[in-house]
Amino acid sequence: MKFAFFRDKIVPMEDAKIGIMTHALNYGTGCFEGIRGYWSEDRQQMYVFQLREHYERLLHSCRSLHIKLDYTLDDLCNITVKLVRKNGYRQDVYIRPLAYKSEEKIGLGLVGIEDDFAIYLSPFGDYLDVSEGISVCVSRFRRLSEHSLPPGAKLTGVYFNSSLAKADAINRGFVEAIMLSSRGNVAEGSGENIFMVKNGKLYTPPVSEDLLPGITRKVLMILARKDLGLVVNEKVFKPKALFTADELFFCGTGAQVSPIVKVDNKKIGNGKIGEITKRLQEAYFTVVKGENPKYSKWLTPVY
Ligand code: PMP
After folding, report:
1. 188 CB under 6 A from ligand 1?
2. Is the pLDDT of residue 115 over 90?
3. pLDDT value, residue 64
4. Among 154, 226, 238, 297, which one carries the catalytic annotation?
């Protein structure tokens, strides 16, 4: 049997249900996280990656929704470990904490509307290809600016915008979309951040370009600088810069490190996964599988 955390208790998954009048379902008033648990067959251990950092971002998102959870950061981490352990998976998982306006009430607003918190998890493989590289498009759908939404929050409602970009990309035969910021600069993928390699240096758009400040983005910046000795710059760039990049890749909890080999049907570099992308990918997988003791502080063992 599989279990969820729902209304302050661990319950069988099928008992974690909400009503159709729920505010968050009607108005998109929720926020969430996506956290990976990596199963190591060698160590017979499940490592939850960057658990605290994800809950720090969730608490930030909660503030923008006027959601005040009854749990501290430590409580949230402990509940998650307990739930993952209770489910007993021995494979990679994706953990989804969700804070939402739970009141069954018609009418807009945020203040004074009841909220709740839930967590579920599911076995999860690669969200995007990590070996051959993917073909993507530059989307006509842009990210919303800080004038429309609180920046840095992972809000359910925002994912309508991301889903439009993703659906349009898939309809047109691409795997994923690169979205531009409200100002027309490169921002990120529909659900992942983007890096560009040019002349041996790494570039990624700054957070001011309407993107979600990814935890994987931050981790890769550290690994690139400290372990690979690379220069990493946060830089605003136009979509045309994508076509002269030596390498491009997406990163995120779901995407991990996913090479982009074509943009709008034009080859990037030689059309194959690039050297720096490959090295970063190796560094990332070594860390998340608990094989780099230097970064064991980023992992929470479950069993
Ligand atoms: N941007 C968006 C829009 C996302 O949904 C995600 C996934 N949470 C990311 C970037 C990457 O963030 P992270 O590395 O924290 O998963």
Report:
1. yes
2. yes
3. 97
4. 154
d(CA 98, CA 150): 18
Nearest CA-CA partner of 246 in 235, 233, 259:
259
For 241, list phi and psi in degrees, rounded to 5.
-65, -25
Q: How does pLDDT run across 230-287, given as a tens digit for each residue?
A: 999 999 999 999 999 999 999 999 999 999 999 999 999 999 999 999 999 999 999 9
Task: List the domains of the chain with CATH numbers.
Answer: 3-123 (3.30.470.10), 134-288 (3.20.10.10)
Burial environment of residue 270 by CB neighbours within 10 A (0 to 12, 13 to 18, 19 or more) = exposed
What value does the mean pLDDT take over residues 136-151?
96
Check whether 125 has a pLDDT greater than 90: no
Residue 32 Cα to ligand 1 midpoint, Å, equals 11
Please confirm, yes or no, whether 154 is among the known catalytic residues. Answer: yes
Question: Closest Cα to atom 5, ligand 1: which residue?
Answer: 191
Length of the chain in terms of residues written = 303
d(CA 139, CA 169): 7
Q: Whose CA is nearest to atom 1 of ligand 1?
A: 192
State percent of the chain over pLDDT 70. Answer: 100
Q: Are 221 and 195 in contact (CB under 8 A)?
A: no
Q: Which atom of ligand 1 is nearest to the CA of 193?
A: 10
CA distance 133 to 56: 32
**Phi, psi angles (nearest 5°) of residue 236:** -80, 130
Distance 41 CA to ligand 1 centre (A): 27
Is residue 152 within 6 Å of ligand 1 at its C-beta?
A: no
The answer to whether the CB of 229 falls within 8 A of the CB of 289 is no
Q: Which residues on neighbouring strands pair with residue 6, listed in sequence order?
A: 9, 118
pLDDT at 194: 98
Tens of pLDDT, residues 210-226: 999 999 999 999 999 99
Rounded Cα distance, 75 and 112, in Å: 24
